[in-house]
Write a structure and sequence with these properties.
The protein is α/β, with parallel strands linked by helices. It is 48% helix and 9% strand.
Length: 381
C-alpha cells in the first residue's frame, strides 16, 4: 500500500501543473498558409500592443454577445478597415518578408483579412463563390443541410478557439472551422510541397547553370475533365504531348505541371499529379525535371503559382517561361479579357504575357508580385 502511494505521488509530481492546450497541426498549417502575416502576430513574442489589444478586446465582446447565433456571429467576426490597420501595425518586423509584402505590410494584412471575410461570406452566409462550379461549401447553400453544416462548424470553432494557431482572434478559428467542415483542405493538401513532392527537381535546380537554357520552365496549365472517373481530359493529354515534344528540344530546364483537383467539383484527381505521372510513364521525361504545382484552380493562379515554385527553387525570374496549352487556352491567355481578369481577381498581374510563338506556345515572364496572397481565394494561397 505504501509503495502504491509512493508511486502515485511520484506520478503526480511528474505531471505538469497545467496541461498545454491541444494543438491541431492541420489548423496551424492552414492558418500559416491562408493568413501568414496575421498568424505571425500571434506567434510574436510578448503581448499585443495596447492599440491592438483594445481592438481585439472590442471584437471579442461583440462576438461573444452573439452567443453563437450564426448571422450575428459572422457579422461580428467580419473585419473593418480600421481593425485591419491595427493588426498591420502589430506585425513583427521579422515577418516583413519583402517578397511577400513588396507593396507593404498593410497591403498584405488587408489581403489576408479580406480573404478571411470572403470565407465568412461564402462558407458562413452562403454567398455564391466566384466560380460556384468548383468552389464553395460541400452542401448546397440555403438548404437544411447547409444550415446544419454551418451550425456544426460554429461549435467546432468555439471548441478550438484557444488553439495557439488561432488564438489571436475568434474569426481565425471560425474561418478555418468553416473550411474544415466542408473538407476544403486545398491550401495544405500537399505540404510540405517542395521538401516532399518536389525534392528531386529542387535539388537539381541548386546545381543548374540557368544560362544554358532559353526558358526556365514549360508551364502546363490543367484543363480538367467533367467526368469524375477520368483522370486527364483529352485536352489535358494534348497539353502533355505538346509539352513533351517541346521539352525534347533541350532549351528548357524544367516542366511545371499546374492544377488542383478542380473538375468536376469534388474530384479526387489532382491535375498536376496526374500530368507528372503521364509525362514520366508515357513520355519518359525524368521525374527530377518535373515540378508539381497542385493548388491552382484557375488560369490566373496557374501562372501565379508556377512563378512561386520558380522563385522557391531559385530560378531567375527575369528569364522567360513558355506556357504550353491548347489553341483556345493559348489564345485566351494573350487576350484583353485575361489581361483584365488578373488584376480583377488577384489584385495584380502575376507577370508579363509575351509573344504567342505558335497556336500552342506563349512566352511568360514571371513577377515577384505573384508571391502576394490572393485577397479573395484563401484556399488557393
Amino acid at each position: 500500500m505504501f509503495k502504491r502511494l509512493l508511486t502515485t505521488a511520484a506520478l503526480a509530481t511528474a505531471l505538469p501543473l497545467q496541461a498545454a492546450p491541444a494543438v491541431d497541426q492541420q489548423w496551424a498549417l492552414m492558418a500559416t498558409r491562408m493568413f501568414p502575416f496575421v498568424a505571425s502576430v500571434k506567434a510574436g513574442a510578448g503581448q499585443p500592443s495596447a492599440a491592438l489589444a483594445s481592438v481585439l478586446d472590442a471584437r471579442r465582446k461583440r462576438i461573444d454577445a452573439c452567443s453563437l447565433a450564426p448571422k450575428c456571429l459572422f457579422l461580428a467576426a467580419t473585419w473593418t478597415d480600421a481593425e485591419m490597420d491595427a493588426v498591420a501595425a502589430a506585425v513583427p518586423p521579422s515577418a516583413n518578408r519583402p517578397a511577400l509584402a513588396d507593396d507593404g505590410i498593410r497591403a498584405q494584412v488587408v489581403r489576408e483579412l479580406r480573404g478571411l471575410n470572403a470565407v465568412l461570406q461564402t462558407y458562413g452566409f452562403g454567398t455564391q463563390a466566384r466560380y460556384p462550379m468548383i468552389d464553395g461549401p460541400v452542401e448546397q447553400t440555403g438548404g437544411a443541410d447547409f444550415k446544419a453544416l454551418v451550425a456544426d462548424a460554429i461549435w467546432l470553432a468555439d471548441a478550438g478557439k484557444n488553439d495557439p494557431a488561432v488564438r489571436l482572434d475568434p474569426s481565425l478559428a471560425l474561418a478555418i472551422a468553416l473550411v474544415d467542415a466542408s473538407e476544403r483542405h486545398d491550401a495544405v493538401a500537399f505540404e510540405p510541397l517542395d521538401a516532399a513532392h518536389n525534392a528531386a527537381p529542387f535539388a537539381l535546380a541548386r546545381t543548374l547553370d540557368w544560362k544554358r537554357y532559353r526558358y526556365s520552365a514549360i508551364i502546363i496549365p490543367g484543363v480538367g475533365p467533367e467526368n469524375p472517373t477520368i483522370s486527364l481530359s483529352a485536352r489535358g493529354k494534348l497539353h502533355l504531348q505538346l509539352a513533351a515534344r517541346r521539352f525534347a528540344q533541350g532549351d528548357v530546364a524544367f516542366i511545371i505541371t499546374s492544377g488542383a483537383a478542380v473538375h468536376p467539383k469534388g474530384s479526387h484527381f489532382v491535375e498536376a499529379v496526374e500530368m507528372r505521372k503521364a509525362l514520366v510513364e508515357r513520355y519518359g521525361i525524368p521525374a527530377e525535371r518535373i515540378v508539381i504545382e497542385p493548388y491552382a484552380r484557375h488560369t490566373t493562379t496557374n501562372l501565379r503559382n508556377a512563378t512561386r515554385r520558380l522563385h522557391a527553387m531559385g530560378a531567375p525570374l527575369d528569364k522567360p517561361t513558355l506556357i504550353v496549352a491548347n489553341a483556345d487556352q493559348s489564345r485566351y491567355i494573350t487576350s484583353p479579357e485575361f489581361a483584365a481578369r488578373n488584376p480583377a481577381e488577384l489584385g495584380y498581374d502575376p507577370g508579363t504575357v509575351g509573344t504567342r510563338l505558335s497556336p500552342y506556345e506563349v512566352e511568360f515572364t514571371p513577377s515577384l508580385r505573384s508571391l502576394r496572397v490572393d485577397p479573395w481565394d484563401p484556399l488557393d494561397p
